[in-house]
Amino acid sequence: MTLSQTSRSPGAVRPNTASLADQAYEFVKREIITMRLRPGEALNEAELMTLTGIGRTPVHQALHRLVHEGMLTIMPRKGVMVRPVSLDDVLAIIEVRLINESYCVELAARHAQPHDFATMEALLERSAACVATHDVERMMEIDRDFHLAISTASRNAVLAEILRGLHERSLRFWFISLSEPHHLEDVHDEHLDLFRLLRERDADGARQSVQRHIEAFRATLFNRI
């Protein structure tokens, strides 16, 4: 699928307070994560300029930022292309998540405050609505936000920042796994279980719950790739 084949129309990026380079970055990143730009697809700066209504320099800056973050790769004599989905990348991310998120939920079970639980509960309500409408893209965002809320509740800013980076790198894989039939419901149920254990201050139970959650993600993703 090429950029010209997407459902986007010229000027798809709406003006806001973010810089033009940030707007172009968010647009291209979203296209990659949601697989509208396919793994291995070459990118054309001129087409991106037309689609976004943004000039060459900000688009160029956005692409190089995504190269630095590992979502795009530069191919000699071919230009910039979407980085293929790699099982090695998935395994590496999952291994690091298992270690760091297990510790994170233990901390959150001990240190979460009422407003943290209120944030998580609101996200779970929105998650239920996504399950009902099978909104994969929005569920992907809520999945990330739910885990970020737990990171915040851990009261360890360094750990939260590490996990934020891991979750951003996981988004494309989350979109793939959530596209599996019934997986939205499974993720919602797993989040409900984790939330219950956190609210009960059950640190050991929360650790086991998040490990099952990540292992289920790995199994589902391997069936899709």
How would you describe the overall organization of this protein?
Helices cover 71% and strands 4% of the residues. Strand 1 (72-75) and strand 2 (79-82) form a beta hairpin. 32% of the residues are buried. It is built from nine helices and two strands; from the N terminus they run αααββαααααα. Helix 5 (114-133) runs antiparallel to helix 8. Strands 1-2 form a two-stranded antiparallel sheet. The chain has 225 residues and is mainly α. It has helices at residues 20-33, 45-52, 56-68, 87-111, 114-133, 136-153, 157-178, 183-199, 203-224, and strands at residues 72-75, 79-82. It has two domains: 3-82, Orthogonal Bundle (Arc Repressor Mutant, subunit A); 87-224, Four Helix Bundle (Hemerythrin (Met), subunit A). It is elongated and about 55 Å long.
Which keywords apply here?
225 residues, mainly alpha, Arc Repressor Mutant, subunit A, Four Helix Bundle (Hemerythrin (Met), subunit A), 2 domains, 9 helices, elongated, disordered N terminus
